[in-house]
Prior knowledge:
Elements: E1 3-14, E2 17-28, E3 32-36, H1 43-50, E4 58-63, H2 72-78, E5 79-82, H3 94-105, H4 112-119, H5 135-147, E6 153-157, H6 165-182, E7 185-190, H7 193-196, E8 202-207, E9 210-215, H8 217-224, E10 228-234, E11 242-243, E12 246-252, E13 255-260, H9 266-276, E14 279-284, H10 289-300
Parallel strand pairs: 3-7, 3-8, 5-6, 6-7
Antiparallel strand pairs: 1-2, 1-4, 8-9, 10-13, 10-14, 11-12, 12-13
Helix pairs in contact: 4-5, 8-10
Amino acid sequence: xxxxxxxxxxxxxxxxxxxxxxxxxxxxxxxxxxxxxxxxxxxxxxxxxxxxxxxxxxxxxxxxxxxxxxxxxxxxxxxxxxxxxxxxxxxxxxxxxxxxxxxxxxxxxxxxxxxxxxxxxxxxxxxxxxxxxxxxxxxxxxxxxxxxxxxxxxxxxxxxxxxxxxxxxxxxxxxxxxxxxxxxxxxxxxxxxxxxxxxxxxxxxxxxxxxxxxxxxxxxxxxxxxxxxxxxxxxxxxxxxxxxxxxxxxxxxxxxxxxxxxxxxxxxxxxxxxxxxxxxxxxxxxxxxxxxxxxxxxxxxxx
Length: 303
């Protein structure tokens, strides 16, 4: 496994206020890693540090082997970045914006601008001043800008803010497609967890400027799920809140939630239920990213 992005014991303060302390994580080449945390937790600061926009107070950073402090220009040549402001010129139209940044990146690929405008559904708006765009349109144009030079690494800071559900679905689909087809390494910062669960390979949880957990979803699940909540769609009738030694509660007319000690108990339980009633569906309801994230945060308190 080749490591493409790396932070080791990174510290950063602004005007005496500690924003990051002892931050260490790695992003393998070709993976999508979600950097998760509430607003103000330090996500944007990490992106700025990795791009060489600001320097750390301590620790080390590497992007494709480059030190952002010394090799900022080299890093920016291979990276695309989408931040909250998108960095667009509002008095210019979409084509003029992309032409300007194409020159800046040295992009000479014919048809690249037209391709991106079509991809993000902006062709019919390409001649309008960007200042007249909706928040979602600006976000889509900002993403097109970040992708102009086919970067090896993409930094996405809250890429779905301001997008409607259709726009969110389109952006997330493209992020996964880009990663699969071109092998682009992606660091995706977000606090909207349900949107990114299906695209990320692993996660880094940030709280109060510190990393409190990291890993793949199954790894985090193994460390933090102390019991299994199994929701079963069934006509099984139970009384007394217990079924063959398992805690159970009714959560709908034909839906029960069982509390189990481990996944190993799922199959025997369902076999027993099938002897007594029908089963139409069964799902573990406390293994999703959002539930695990708040479990981790609760475990670590105010660290």
